[in-house]
Q: What sequence folds into this?
């Protein structure tokens, strides 16, 4: 066996041992990112954690935090304005106030699933007779692709492409969530764009965190670093994903988002309005803003009162504490967004809950 | 939608890159990255290469664990 390989095995063994034998104070670690929630389950990371280490879900699944009213707006655009809705697949089954886009499809709505906003722009170019709207959700990581789609549409001279924006930014959510957790597991790909200054700044407010990647090895390492530092008792930040995340992030992505979009207040499903935590297109790009282009009225939307997504997204309860979980709410018949999305905490618990010692009834 | 994909750059043309992600070829935007060359590894998100990366997570995790 090569020496290098043995070294790797050793360091992962060490990480497992630290997490298994942890003897510091109880620690709540917030998985900000829904993909982290899923990967932590899927890779069996929870199995090695000492019972004093509590993983809690956070607000970082863009589909989950998209408010009910946004789905209602998309349905209105499709059914009343005759637009073609292009979207990431996860949004299709998210319940609106009365129905999901999937149900609206049965009533004649044209809804097309695309992998990227760039594909939506290409679709618009190929279908000049249709008014194509892309459902622009996502955090800092996705915003550059949305901007690029608008830029391509402008270059191609399209008048039939626009975004329905619900883009969000993370710093406001960190502020809103900082008292719910002892330690943030920061989402690696958000910070690949923003850099890590925001995490460093939070240290001066007493907020600790580690920035983590997504492989089993990266997650075990980040958690081991996190609990070891936590035991020392001083606030800290460690970038545990330096192969992707740098201190300055991506200046090109930041510049493009800044030039094309501006901050706005944003509604987070189940959490409420967080000031300046959203992004909308600037006035120069009003022709690509579906809300302005189609003069949409303000739509509030009403979530199903039985759904406790809001508490799940703030780490206040675990999905299995919701009375609907696994009974009336399943991935086939989701009551809330957290059960629909492939990054949602409720769907993670539904798929992998037994790995955490919480089997379904 | 938030899952990043690490991929190897096969070729570059007009701000776009053809990348190979575990055998699957895809065309992605390379506009956010400068000095990109075939053979480089990138993290792809929603159809855009967002960062240049090293291909392995091994070295950085070893370094971090050695510091503990
Ligand atoms: S289990 Fe379903 S109803 Fe309950 S919080 Fe999760 S998504 Fe909402």
A:
């Amino acid at each position: 066996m090569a020496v290098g390989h043995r070294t790797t095995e050793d360091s992962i063994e060490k990480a497992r041992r630290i997490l298994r034998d942890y003897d510091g104070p109880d620690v709540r670690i917030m998985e900000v990112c829904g993909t982290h929630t899923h990967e932590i389950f899927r890779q069996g990371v929870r199995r090695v954690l000492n019972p004093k280490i509590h993983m809690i879900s956070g607000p970082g699944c863009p589909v989950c935090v998209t408010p009910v009213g946004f789905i209602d707006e998309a349905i209105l655009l499709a059914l009343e304005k005759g637009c073609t809705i292009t979207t990431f697949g996860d949004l299709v089954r998210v319940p609106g106030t009365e129905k999901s886009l999937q149900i609206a499809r049965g009533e004649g709505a044209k809804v097309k699933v695309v992998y990227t906003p760039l594909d939506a722009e290409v679709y618009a170019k190929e279908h000049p007779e249709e008014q194509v709207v892309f459902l622009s959700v996502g955090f800092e990581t996705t915003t550059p692709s949305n901007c690029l789609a608008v830029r391509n549409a402008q270059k191609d001279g399209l008048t039939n492409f626009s975004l329905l924006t619900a883009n969000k930014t993370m710093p406001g959510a960190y502020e809103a969530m900082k008292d719910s957790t002892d330690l943030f597991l920061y989402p690696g790909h958000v910070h690949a764009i923003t850099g890590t200054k925001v995490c460093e700044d939070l240290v001066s407010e007493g907020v600790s965190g580690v920035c983590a990647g997504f492989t089993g090895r990266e997650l075990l390492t980040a958690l081991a670093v996190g609990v070891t530092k936590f035991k020392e008792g001083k606030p800290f930040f460690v970038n545990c994903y330096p192969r992707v995340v740098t201190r300055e992030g991506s200046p090109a992505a930041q510049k493009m988002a800044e030039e094309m979009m501006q901050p706005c207040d944003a509604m987070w499903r189940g959490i409420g309005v967080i000031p300046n935590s959203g992004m909308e297109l600037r006035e120069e790009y009003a022709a690509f803003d579906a809300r302005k282009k189609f003069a949409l009225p303000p739509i509030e939307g009403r979530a199903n009162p039985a759904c406790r997504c809001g508490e799940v997204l703030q780490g206040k309860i675990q999905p299995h504490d919701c009375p609907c979980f696994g009974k009336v709410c399943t991935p086939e018949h989701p009551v809330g967004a957290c059960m629909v999305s492939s990054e949602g905490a409720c769907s993670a618990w539904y798929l992998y809950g037994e790995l955490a010692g919480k089997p379904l009834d | 939608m938030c899952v990043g994909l690490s991929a190897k750059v096969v070729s570059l043309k007009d701000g776009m890159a053809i990348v190979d992600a575990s055998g699957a070829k895809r065309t992605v935007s390379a506009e956010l990255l400068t000095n990109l060359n075939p053979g480089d590894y990138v993290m792809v998100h929603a159809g855009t290469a967002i960062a240049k990366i090293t291909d392995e997570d091994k070295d950085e995790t070893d370094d971090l664990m050695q510091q503990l």
About this structure: The pocket of iron/sulfur cluster is lined by residues A 307-309, 312, 319, 322, 324-325, 329, 335-336, 338-339, 346 (CB under 6 Å). Helices of chain B lie at 58-67. Strands of chain B lie at 5-13, 16-21, 24-29, 41-45, 48-53. Residues 19 and 57 of chain B are 19 Å apart (CA to CA).
